Structure formats: structure tokens, C-alpha cells
Input
Amino acid sequence: MKRREIITGAAMFAAASALAGCAKITNALNENDAIKSVLHAAEPLNHAVIGTRGEAKLYPDSAIDREFRVNGFDTPSDSAYAALRRDGFASYKLVVEGLVDRPQAFTLAQLRALGSLTQTTRHDCVEGWSAIGKWSGVRLSSVLALAAPQTRARYVIFHCLDRSSDGDPYYESLDMHQAAHPQALLALDLNERPLDADHGAPVRLRVPTQLGYKSAKWVGRIEVADSFKNVGSGKGGYWEDQGYDWYAGI
Amino acid sequence: MDAVAGAERMPSAVSQTREPLVYRHSLTVRVTHWVFALAFFVLVMSGLQIFNASPNLDASDKSDPARRVLSIGAQQLPDGKTAGVTTIFGHAFTTTHVLGYTSDGMSGEAERAFPGWITWPGYQDLAGGRRWHLFFAWIMILCGTAYFIGGITRKDVGLIVLRPSDVPKLLPMQLYYLRLRREPPPHGKYNPLQKAAYTSVLFVFAPLMVISGLALSPGVDAIAHPLTTLLGGRQFARLWHFVATVALVGFFGIHITLVLSTGVFNNLRSMVTGEYRLGAHDGNGV
Output
């Protein structure tokens, strides 16, 4: 009996040490830059194989979440946004510039005048939850077409009005193919009402074929560019700079 | 994948002449086995890391608390402490220190579903978990493809498939394992229980794992809505992905138990050099 107790005790001690060591090992491997760059090989593979081919499923009104869960940051807290909000976004202008022949600045009324597209689609958050909302707004491709992107253009970068708690501005990017997708939407309304502040008022991007972090809220300026290397930390988006994949179709 | 050997040799089988060494596992099977083993570890652990970012499983398309099957969360107690609470089909269990409020993968405890020692990485890092998971998912796909191509070109993949004629032999084989029966039922390279286990893993749970994983991708969903619909929706696909994980982890436990209890040296050798010393009750072994 004694011997059994010693063996059991030793085994439990070994198991406990192994378990404690496990996290240390996986943490260290996770932070290794060489390993990180090897693991990133999956991203271009996913982009090539899955890409942006089909169209996200459209849902009936009965599927809509009336209380649409807020993803990402809460309402921007800076005075500039507060001022915009106070006058009902009357002084808001959506700027489209960069590698375009005809830079634009749209008021909300001008955006609404471009025609309205409504789509009820599912928002899949990278965290794992999903919610369904009825989004109305202007097709991104229509807005870009008015600005006439140049042939050198490769990316559309969305500069947003919010910042992280560290003060880093939120931004996102799509390539020209993704930006031309018929469901890529500059949403002005959610569930038939103008977007509220937490959901990205006055304009948010909706990219239903990719994870939620692509659907940037509080879009203030759209830049057409040949690279996103010089924006933020150069990975193509705020969450991409935190280590998430630029291709968010998976 | 096929290291579970047949049976222990009966004392009477220990004689002057040893049983022959047979070449049991091809190089493809041996290499894919060990790559599988590594990838499985990383995928399960990084999968739990990803689960932790949204520790609910709903039998529905979108997230829906009314159709919640599993939820792992934390609750503030009146004394200021935090309890881990796991809720399965509406029944709540206190799981403090194990699930819900548990190891944060560094040096303390925190509100998180699975503990740090079973997630990859240990601390909460969804981006990191996804990086490992999506890379090793590819390794698993390539490895599975190599395994099946090897089996088809060798024309022996069929040996592992459970057939109707094996079904009556399942119970006698289980009785033999439990030492309630002297001899196993007659069988070929794999005994009926091995066939049942491997068939369910290779042809049910592995495919379920792949399609439920793909159904989670909004990009794949946009190409193939029927796939997601077939599984009951996106959140349901997440539930299936978890169910398949539980099944494969269960298989892994049985697999290791049998590898250890049916001649660990012989079993390991067969998965390294391919050579296996036949036991008296092993069928034809090849």
C-alpha cells in the first residue's frame, strides 16, 4: 500500500508539473517570430483557395436580431466624434481620395441619394458568435466608381473615426476584388433605422463574406492605394496589426 | 493511425520458437501517423483557445441563448470570489478551478472557459490560437490526403473498414478484451473493434471535423450554403466541430490505453520501423 501511495503521489506531481509546463511551452512557441512567419503561410493559402467567390446567404426578416450585438469598440469618446454626433452628422463627409481620378466628399444626404441597397446578412465575429441584421446603404463599388480608381490601385483602405485605448486609429482594408463584391456595402441603416453610435454611425462597412472585424465601423475616409504598408503597423488593419489574418474569409 | 495491435499473447504461446516479425505498416502510414499525432495535439489545444473567445455552443444558425447546448462562464459569488459555472442543456454545474474560472496560462487564475494548460497558447490569445489552428488544419488535410492516396494505391485501405460481417464479431471481441473469452473471433489484419474504431474516426468523425470547420468560414459559406445548412447553421457547425473533437479525444484515450496494454514496445516498433511481432491471437497481422 505504501509503495502504491508513493507511486500515485509521484505520478500526480509529474502530471501537475507537466500541465504547468505545458502553458509555458506553448506560450514560448507562440511568441517565436520564426514560427509565427511559418504559421502565416496558411493565410495566402486560405486566400487562394477560398477567396471571395460566392455571395453570403440572405435571410428573411424573421431571422433578424432586433438587439444586434455590438462588435469591436464602443462609441468613440473623442470630442470630434461627439461634435459630429451632436449635429446629427450634418457636418459629416465621407472622403474618397488617394489613387483616384476624381476625389470625392459625400454628405450623408448625397450618399443616400446614390440609391439604397438592403441586405439581411449574418455577421460572423472572429470570436465565434453570429448575429443577423438588416443592413441598408450604398454599394461600395458605386461609391468607388464615382471616384474613378486609377489602374495602379490595389487596395481600398478605410480610415475610421475611432481609436483603441492605446490611441491607435482603427482602419481596415480590402483588395480591389473584394471591394468590387456586390455585397460589400457602406451601411447607413441597421434594421431599418439609421445606425446608432455603438453600431458605427453614421457609416460602417459591411463585408458579409468575411469575419466581422473587416466590417469597420465609423468610416470617415476611404483611401485608394497601391499598398497599405505605410498605414498603422502595415498589416492592413487594426486587428491585423494585433496578429489577426488580413484575409478574414475563414 | 493503426497502431492498436491485437491481443496479449497467452502464456501457452510463449514457446521456444518466437512468432514471426511481419511488415505491418507502410512508410506512408507510419509518417502520416506521427504527423497526425502532432497536428491533433496542436489542433485540439488551439481549438480550445478559439472556443474560449466565445465559450457557448448553440444548436442554431446565429447565436441564440434559447438554443444553447453548452456554456462555460463565471459568476460573482456574494463573498466576492468568482465561481466557474458550466451549463449543459440548462443544467448548471460549479466547475471553479477547472472550467469557467481557471488557470490563465500564466501564473494565476482568470475568467476563462478552458484552463491555460490545455489551450495553445496557454494565455488568452485568439489571434495566436487561430494562427496555429489554421496552419495545422492544412497539415491535417495534406496528411489525410497522403494517407488515403497511400491506402488506395496499396489497395489495402479496405482492410480497416468495418463490414456487415464484422458486426456479429464485435461483442465476442469485446469479451476477449475483458478476459471473459479465451479466444478472439477470427479476423484479418484488424480485429472487428479496431475496424469499428478506425472506420468511425476515418469515415465519420474526421470528415465531420473537416466539413464543420469549413462551414464556420464565412468565405466557404458564401460558396456553399448547403454545407452550412446541412449542419444546422453556423453555430450548429461550431457545435458539431466540438462534438467531433470530443469523439476524437475519446478515441485517442482508448487508442493510448490499448497501445500501452497490448505490448507497448511491439506496437511502437510497428509504427516506427513497420515491423510487428505477431501474437497468437492477432489474425494474419498484415
Observations:
- The domain at 1-53+125-286 of chain B is CATH 1.20.950.20 (Fumarate Reductase Cytochrome B subunit).
